[in-house]
């Protein structure tokens, strides 16, 4: 879906959206909660070797575990022992390969999509497709192509199998005022593509954002103290349990997530194609087919919209001050019909990881922690050059 447009995108989007309702996410939450226990155990054992941990790698393993559990319906074991040869880690690294050639393909696809497709270029290599094909057809077969009661995305997608097609509206309906419907055939390939999409769109984005949150909280002791207090109070209210309600119950923690996404939007630029000729209020004509690149990072770091933009100040996203944010100047999840479908899902692994970590530890920077980051220019998403090393100190 991420790389499609037109009717194909619209039908998939309409049929995937209900899978991200509060009810469905709440049903799935127990799978994330299991991963929070695994990260707690993993950290206990890691800290026996050293209390300085590279958090990008830690969060990549944890997020892989969450996504594997919810999207593929399997335990990936990425937080287990001897994980260097874990096939999920290898595939994750391949998807986010940051070679110059991949960087070139990303730019080419955004700027000249017709040339990209006429050269039959592909974003992902054949072995990635093969790995997921084998993995998921096994999962489908084990479940006999029916819901298993696990409430994960595989279950939700297998509901599509009850009919041979999924149906949705044509994109042209909005313009022509018609009500024409479009069908997409549901076969294994269709189901597998959706799982791979959710993995590719959800894994790196969520893992990197959570590492940036930890980095900023390690640098800003006052903010960390406030977060820890909010987390302690949460645990008191919920008898020490991590529950679905945690996602929206801690306003300061939420503000820290928002402020981190302002400083480090996962996609620095998003692209739209003009669907119909349109004249802006300034008189500028946008011709049909023109590609518009929206500079999210630039806007979020613009002093006009965010005073002292380099400063980490979660208060921008709290109470009355939040109302000062001008519409469309803050777009970490995009906006409009193509905005991120996984925004609410992403909060589950992020908040859960923070709850699990701050229950047991305070964090500090070390001499290896950079003061600021240069970003990897060839990566799909915003990624720091190098690791993020932080010191974990037991709270007990
Ligand atoms: C911190 C985490 C995340 C961030 C910052 C993020 C950000 C974004 C952004 C900026 C877009 C493009 C929106 C646009 O063009 O307007 C996007 C699209 C998308 N995201 Fe996310 N995302 C995150 C996590 C996730 C997760 C966990 C999932 C799925 C489980 C997901 C699934 C998708 C999909 C499927 C699209 C394509 C939507 C479409 O084309 O209709 N994302 N995301």
From TrEMBL:
<dbReference type="InterPro" id="IPR001128">
    <property type="entry name" value="Cyt_P450"/>
</dbReference>
<keyword id="KW-0503">Monooxygenase</keyword>
<dbReference type="InterPro" id="IPR050476">
    <property type="entry name" value="Insect_CytP450_Detox"/>
</dbReference>
<dbReference type="GO" id="GO:0016712">
    <property type="term" value="F:oxidoreductase activity, acting on paired donors, with incorporation or reduction of molecular oxygen, reduced flavin or flavoprotein as one donor, and incorporation of one atom of oxygen"/>
</dbReference>
<feature type="binding site" description="axial binding residue">
    <location>
        <position position="340"/>
    </location>
    <ligand>
        <name>heme</name>
    </ligand>
</feature>
<keyword id="KW-0256">Endoplasmic reticulum</keyword>
<dbReference type="GO" id="GO:0020037">
    <property type="term" value="F:heme binding"/>
</dbReference>
<keyword id="KW-0492">Microsome</keyword>
<dbReference type="Pfam" id="PF00067">
    <property type="entry name" value="p450"/>
</dbReference>
<dbReference type="InterPro" id="IPR017972">
    <property type="entry name" value="Cyt_P450_CS"/>
</dbReference>
<keyword id="KW-0472">Membrane</keyword>
<dbReference type="GO" id="GO:0005789">
    <property type="term" value="C:endoplasmic reticulum membrane"/>
</dbReference>
<protein>
    <recommendedName>
        <fullName>unspecific monooxygenase</fullName>
        <ecNumber>1.14.14.1</ecNumber>
    </recommendedName>
</protein>
<keyword id="KW-0408">Iron</keyword>
<keyword id="KW-0479">Metal-binding</keyword>
<dbReference type="InterPro" id="IPR036396">
    <property type="entry name" value="Cyt_P450_sf"/>
</dbReference>
<keyword id="KW-0560">Oxidoreductase</keyword>
<dbReference type="GO" id="GO:0005506">
    <property type="term" value="F:iron ion binding"/>
</dbReference>
<dbReference type="InterPro" id="IPR002401">
    <property type="entry name" value="Cyt_P450_E_grp-I"/>
</dbReference>
<keyword id="KW-0349">Heme</keyword>
<comment type="similarity">
    <text>Belongs to the cytochrome P450 family.</text>
</comment>
């Amino acid at each position: 879906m991420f790389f499609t447009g037109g009717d194909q995108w619209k039908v998939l989007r309409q049929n995937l959206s209900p899978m991200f309702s509060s009810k469905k996410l709440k049903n799935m939450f127990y799978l994330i909660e299991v991963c929070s226990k695994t990260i707690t155990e993993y950290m206990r054992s890691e800290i026996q070797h050293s209390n300085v941990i590279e958090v990008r790698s830690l969060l990549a393993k944890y997020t892989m575990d969450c996504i594997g559990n919810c999207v593929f319906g399997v335990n990936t074991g990425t937080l287990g022992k001897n994980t260097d040869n874990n096939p999920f880690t290898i595939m994750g690294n391949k998807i986010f390969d940051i070679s110059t050639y991949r960087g070139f393909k990303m730019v080419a696809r955004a700027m000249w999509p017709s040339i990209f497709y006429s050269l039959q270029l592909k974003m992902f290599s054949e072995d990635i497709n093969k790995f997921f094909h084998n993995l998921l057809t096994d999962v489908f077969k084990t479940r006999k192509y029916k819901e298993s009661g696990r409430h994960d995305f595989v279950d939700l997608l297998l509901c599509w199998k009850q009919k041979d097609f999924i149906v949705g509206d044509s994109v042209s309906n909005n313009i022509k005022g018609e009500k024409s419907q479009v069908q997409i055939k549901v076969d294994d390939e269709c189901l597998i593509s959706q799982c791979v999409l959710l993995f590719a769109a959800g894994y790196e984005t969520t893992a990197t954002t959570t590492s940036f949150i930890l980095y900023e909280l390690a640098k800003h002791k006052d903010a960390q103290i406030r977060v820890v207090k909010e987390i302690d109070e949460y645990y008191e209210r919920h008898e020490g349990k991590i529950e679905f309600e945690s996602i929206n119950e801690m306003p300061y923690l939420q503000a820290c997530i928002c402020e981190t996404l302002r400083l480090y939007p996962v996609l620095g630029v998003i692209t739209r194609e003009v669907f119909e000729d349109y004249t802006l209020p300034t008189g500028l004509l946008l011709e049909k087919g023109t590609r518009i690149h929206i500079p999210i990072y630039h806007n979020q770091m613009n002093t006009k919209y965010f005073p002292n933009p380099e400063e980490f100040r979660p208060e921008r996203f709290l109470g009355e001050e939040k109302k000062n944010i001008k519409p469309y100047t803050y777009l970490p999840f995009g906006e409009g019909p193509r905005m991120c479908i996984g925004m609410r899902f992403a909060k589950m692994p992020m908040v859960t990881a923070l709850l699990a970590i701050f229950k047991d530890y305070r964090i500090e920077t070390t001499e290896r922690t950079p003061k600021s980051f240069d970003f990897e220019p060839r990566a799909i998403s915003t990624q720091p050059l190098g690791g993020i090393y932080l010191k974990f100190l037991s709270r007990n």
